[in-house]
Design goal:
41% of the residues lie in helices and 13% in strands. It is of the alpha/beta class. The protein has a domain at 37-289 and 297-303 and 323-332: TIM Barrel. The longest helix has 19 residues, at 301-319.
Length: 389
């Protein structure tokens, strides 16, 4: 804070607005373009900055160059999902996409974060609807654990971490002792499927960070789920797995944020308590799929971008106060590739703008808030060291 009350963040917001409005002078614009990349800003405080991509984006060279320059870690968006890996129940495993994305990350000296070994989605059209629920226990064990072991062992020693189990936390009083029961592997194998998956992952890749990944802890979300019961259920599952000596290393918080009344609905103090409770259990915390669903915001680009940036600021400044948070991974860098446009299009037809860069790969106000949150974060001991230094 200066004597005039102007902070570095205020200056950056003004600069971002000037870039958006096209009023920044050429020398100032050149200065903004030559600053340190996001991964390096984050690394100075012990944070690994990454982003999610898929092999089908590789032909977009300008976008891939942006990813190479800004991210120290690659979250595998699609390439280990079963529509790629096992496109039909009887198909041989297809490691082509997985091999390609791991090789690309290694070529760029980036870490790789694999997703997802166990999930109830991502099967693709080759799986008849409900087919996973109809497997016998033996069939389910062979197909789930066989695929897991083959995948993890193939890339052992090359992965920073794996999301071993994704999205098993129940809403409210649904499910059983905090865990979803409407999950194919729960119904076919039983409640122990999650613990067994973690043990198998550890056996096949002893050095990788093993992660339980989940969403819905911030505000009421687009599905109407309330965050408080989901937080309690997540902690119940963590406690159960730890009592069973399951090799759980980290908890992944997806960070899909809903813009609609975010500032009124987001209880920063309660969220900090939740993060502290996870950290008190000895777990690292990763923000794995950060973006903003811009429902409740105007269609006009400028006010919408500013509002989204404010949400990034509020959320990240809250999260990064917790030193157990070791990585921040937006679910993409550019609005050019966002799942929200396809899965949740706006009713007014305006294109979604959830990410730090727009569809033309230009920095948005959210970029500056993300960058400044990483810069101002308290220093912590790093979980991973990117190969680039």
């Amino acid at each position: 804070m200066t004597e005039s009350g102007i902070t570095r963040r205020t200056v950056l917001k003004g600069a971002a607005g000037a870039v958006t409005a096209g009023t920044l002078g050429p020398l100032a614009g050149q200065a903004l373009a030559t600053h340190a990349p996001l991964w390096k800003v984050a690394q100075r405080n012990g944070i690994v900055f990454g982003t999610a991509i898929a092999t089908w984006m590789f032909e977009d060279e300008p976008f891939m160059d942006l990813v190479r320059r800004q991210a120290a870690l690659i979250f595998t968006m699609d390439d280990f999902l079963w529509y790629q890996l096992k496109p039909t129940p009887d198909a041989e495993l297809n490691f082509g996409p997985g091999d390609a994305i791991v090789a690309k990350a290694e070529e760029n000296r980036q870490l790789v974060f694999g997703a997802h070994l166990v999930w109830d989605e991502g099967f693709g059209e080759g799986w008849p609807e409900g087919a996973a629920f109809e497997l016998s226990e033996q069939e389910a064990r062979e197909i789930l654990f066989g695929t897991l072991e083959a995948t993890v062992s193939r890339y052992a020693g090359r992965m920073a971490g794996w999301i071993v189990v994704n999205e098993i936390v129940a809403n409210g009083d649904e499910g059983e002792r905090g865990m979803r029961t409407d999950y194919p592997w729960y119904q076919t194998i039983g409640r122990g499927f999650a613990a067994e998956a973690f043990h198998l992952a550890r056996q096949n890749d002893p050095e990788a960070t093993l992660v339980l990944n989940e969403f819905g802890f911030e505000t009421v979300n687009e599905f109407g789920d309330r965050p408080e019961p989901r937080r309690r259920n997540a902690l119940r599952i963590i406690d159960e797995l730890q009592r069973q000596d399951v090799p759980l290393d980290a908890f992944g918080i997806q960070g899909h944020l809903l813009a609609d009344r975010f500032h009124q609905r987001f209880d920063a103090k309660a969220y900090r308590r939740f993060l502290a409770e996870i950290a008190d259990r000895g777990l690292e915390i990763l923000i794995t799929e950060l973006d903003v669903l811009d429902d409740g915001l105007p269609a006009a680009v400028r006010p919408r971008d500013v509002a989204i940036a404010d949400i990034y600021e509020r959320y990240l400044d809250t999260v990064l106060k917790e030193p157990a948070v070791k990585s921040v991974m937006p679910f993409g860098l550019s609005d050019r590739y966002t799942w929200l446009q396809e899965d949740f299009p706006r009713e007014d037809g305006a294109e979604r703008r959830p990410l730090p860069y727009d569809s033309d790969l230009a920095r948005k106000p959210a970029y500056w808030e993300l960058r400044e949150s990483l810069r101002q974060a308290r220093n912590r001991t790093a979980l991973w060291t990117p190969p680039r230094g």
